Amino acid sequence: MFHRILVALDKSETSEYIFEQALFMAKAGGAAMMLLHVLSPLEDPYLNPIFLQPETIYPSLQTDAINRYMQAWDELKQQRLIWMQSLTQTAINAGVKTEFTQSLGSAGRLICELASSWQADLIILGRRGHSGMTELFLGSVSNYVLHHAPCSVMTIQGLIPSILTNPATTEPAST
Asked: Do residues 164 and 17 lie in contact, with contact meaning Cβ atoms separated by under 8 Å?
């Protein structure tokens, strides 16, 4: 049985489903949860630092671009913190001891480091299904975690099946 579950969330389409699965497992097993969100400026869907290149001709334009970029980052960090607080409160209301953290950096490395320092028994994270050139250039967080985690890892693949997202639309087949 798992006692400490680290849940890595990235605000993708599957994040809610991943959270629900983790909450179910934690509640069923009486485990504590740690929710983790990693901000990375080099990964989609985060802000692009294209305007942060050195500019010698018009330094005031560079300053304005940096200020706008930093303001947008602050807004994004705040939005994600509010999201994490909301998920944490949902888990606490369900009777699961839960805490959260948000970090900046390499997601795979930070997930493994937190799993080790927090002494997680299980890591739950999503897998987007990148392969080939996409995985070569973007890397794979789930692949990194699978190979470097200090504990068991559960990956949840791809998009949520439509039957899980809206069970009211499915009707039993009549014979």
From this structure: yes
If one counts every other C-beta atom within 10 angstroms of the C-beta of residue 40, the result is: 15
Triad 12, 158, 135: Cα angle to 5°: 85
Asked if residue 90 lies in contact with residue 112, where contact means CB atoms within 8 angstroms, the answer is: no
Token pair belonging to 151: 């504990």
DSSP letters for the chain: --SEEEEEE-SSTTHHHHHHHHHHHHHHHT-EEEEEEEE-TTSTTSPP-GGGS--SS-HHHHHHHHHHHHHHHHHHHHHHHHHHHHHHHHHHHTT--EEEEEEES-HHHHHHHHHHHTT-SEEEEEE----HHHHHHH--HHHHHHHH-SSEEEEEESSPPHHHH-GGG--PPP-
pLDDT tens for 88-101 read 999 999 999 999 99
Q: Is the dihedral of CA 21, 23, 27, 33 positive or negative?
A: positive
Backbone angles phi, psi at 6, to 5 degrees: -95, 125
**Token pair in block for residue 139:** 């890397």
Phi, psi of 60 (to 5 degrees): -70, -35
pTM > 0.70: yes
